[in-house]
Amino acid sequence: MTWYQHARSYTEAKWSALAPVSRRSVAEALVTITTALTITQRGTPEGKVLRRALLGWAFNPGTRDHLPPAEIAAALDWADRISLPVSAGELRDGAAGAGGLRHHLTGTPAAGATQRRKRSVFYNASATPSSKATWPPTRSTASSGPPPPSTA
Fold first, then answer.
1. Which residues are paired to 103 by β-bridges?
2. Is the C or the N end of the chain the one with fewer CB within 10 Å?
3. Exposed/middle/buried for residue 145 (C-beta within 10 Å: 0-12, 13-18, 19+)
4. The pTM is what?
């Protein structure tokens, strides 16, 4: 499963419980994160088209029943093919380190509150297991203390 697929599942799971403004904030954060977690290569859709596809179609469950225009469908297909796999342990560092969370969709620097909101969405999404993914846990499940005393 790719990050793109995981983010779509996350959106579907959270959408009904979110207020309209929160829905837009989550979708915008996921667009920024998803573009940071893709491999730029030949055939990359134009940035404006990709952002419109992700914001209006991929991370908006209300549009899932509608057939997207050809250019949007091509951008969504590209995002699905190029997005990094969820199993990559570097996802968390990759999105934050790539500067993806520090900028608006237009590339201009984001305010601190915007960065924190996007980081919060990313951490929440990455800590939310998908039914199709084996996402690494955010905290170690192993005991950090010494082993229990032997009873033998």
1. 109
2. C
3. exposed
4. 0.76
Q: Give the confidence band of 94 by pLDDT, cuts at 50, 70, 90.
A: low
| Angle CA 125–17–107, to nearest 5 | 45
Q: Where are the alpha helices (DSSP H) in 67-130?
A: 70-82, 91-97, 112-127
Distance from C-alpha of 82 to C-alpha of 143, rounded to nearest angstrom: 37
Check whether 90 has a pLDDT greater than 70. no
How many contiguous H segments (helices) and E segments (strands) does the chain have?
Answer: 6, 0
Return the higher-pLDDT residue of 144 and 5: 5
Q: Is 60 in contact with 114 (CB distance < 8 Å)?
A: no
Closest CA relative to residue 118, chosen from 105, 136, 133:
105
Q: What is the pLDDT of residue 22?
A: 93
Considering only CA atoms, which of 21, 152, 138, 2 is closest in space to residue 80? 2
Torsion angles phi and psi, residue 65, rounded to 5: -85, -5
Q: According to the model, what pLDDT value does residue 106 have?
A: 74
**In this structure, how many other beta carbons lie within 10 angstroms of the beta carbon of residue 135?**
16
